[in-house]
Design goal:
- By secondary structure, the chain is of the alpha/beta class.
- It folds into two domains: 229 residues, Alpha/Beta hydrolase fold, catalytic domain (Rossmann fold, 3-Layer(aba) Sandwich), CATH 3.40.50; 157 residues, Alpha Horseshoe (Serine Threonine Protein Phosphatase 5, Tetratricopeptide repeat).
- The protein has an eight-stranded mixed beta sheet with strand order 1-2-4-3-5-6-7-8, with helices on both faces.
- Helix 11 runs antiparallel to helix 12 and helix 12 runs parallel beside helix 14.
- The protein is globular and about 70 Å long.
- It starts with a helix and ends in a 7-residue tail after the last helix.
Amino acid sequence: MKKKSLFLLFLSSILFFSCSSGPGKTKTIVEAKDTVPTKENFAKGQLIENVLNLNDASQSYAMYLPSNYSSDKIYPVIYAFDAHGAGKLPVSMYKDLAEKYGYILIGSNNSKNGTPWDESQIIANNLFSDSQLRLSINTSRIYLLGFSGGARVANGLCITNGGIAGVICCGAASPAANSKDPRSNYTFLGICGNADFNYIEMRKYDMIELAGRPVKHAFIEFDGKHEWPKVEVMNDAFLWSELGAMRKDPKLKNDAFVKENILVFSDQIKKLQGNKKTFEVYNLVRRTINFFDGLTDLKEYYDIYNPLKANPEIDKKLKLESKNWKQEEDLKSFYSDAFQSKNLDWWRQDINSMNKKIKTGSTDDALMYKRTLDYLSLVAYMQTTGSLQKQNLPAAKMFCHIYMIIDPTNSEGHYLDATILAIEGKDKECIAALDESVKNGFKDISRLQMDNTFVKIKTTPEFDLLLKKVNEASLNPATKN
């Protein structure tokens, strides 16, 4: 038991740093006044991948300005934090929403998993100050958006920074910052896939952590794993920010806009009612009230919500959900320990059994096992890379094989397998593993070109062919990510 406890303590710590930064006390500061008109003529209506910071050329950001952008006006801004410092990713994904709602969208190219909290704040300060000096930003409408570790950074910045209006956390919620006195005058929106390994964390944060605080909050669940939400899901995040601004400043209220959008929610509620999805109706009506509170008459929604709160079926479902949380956490703990004690044959049999349960079990059980597999994929990745860093090749091989058993279509598992094979001098097998990585969605051509692990095979025709395949995949958005 002692060995297991120590391992779980170690695992929880590395998982935290894999999706967040360390704690700190320094507060990030956002200017409390609107910025001066822009002095630069940035392109409008198109993605700008790399804007260098004027005071520190090692820092940069991706950016999108709406096509109607003018320095004569001020615009709300969303700063996005990706877990891997890929600022271009969220900006390219959501630029059409920025255009639709009239937002400036900026993605940090420097904030990433594993960055210490104090350094994360410096990066954020530089990002805020540089962009607000050069762009016409409404500093009363600054929003932060993050995914995974980027969400933890965004939430940490928000709870310690009085100049931020709201935060949108995707795939994680617990803030990177430790604050004894977190502020409450902001909005929080959580978004998470129902098969995301952090799903329980997100539900608890919305239902428990924020329940006793006067923070306007809501939660959106979508069908998916640990990933940036699709555009149609993120649309509600932009809507949430717009409605929050109207609630805060009555001069911004647009009754036609409110009416148009609440009708969308109403249609969804009626559809769920028609399909007798009682618990889904409960969650959606609750979200509708949170979204439109104070902006329109919500009597018809309370007439649905209040009886549901006293509905035994809802109470039973909420209690079952809480019970399932405990079951899932115990399951993850069991499998975490298995990394240190079980052989490959056991893993093959057990993962095969889990996949059968996903196909044949109840919806709740299937989602629990999907989240467990998603979690184990991350743990296997971390165990493999950690062993490689320690130059423990036998352990790396073992964990990498487990990784590919758990998540056989993950390109990273095959890439790590190729790395191990290259270290062993098995060039032919290494090429085959890299080819499998490409088949399963590997697209990072610069990483492959710069990886010195593959120096022996870089002059071969087979490697040139791999580079060609990766380049073609990177140019084809329809290929697997």
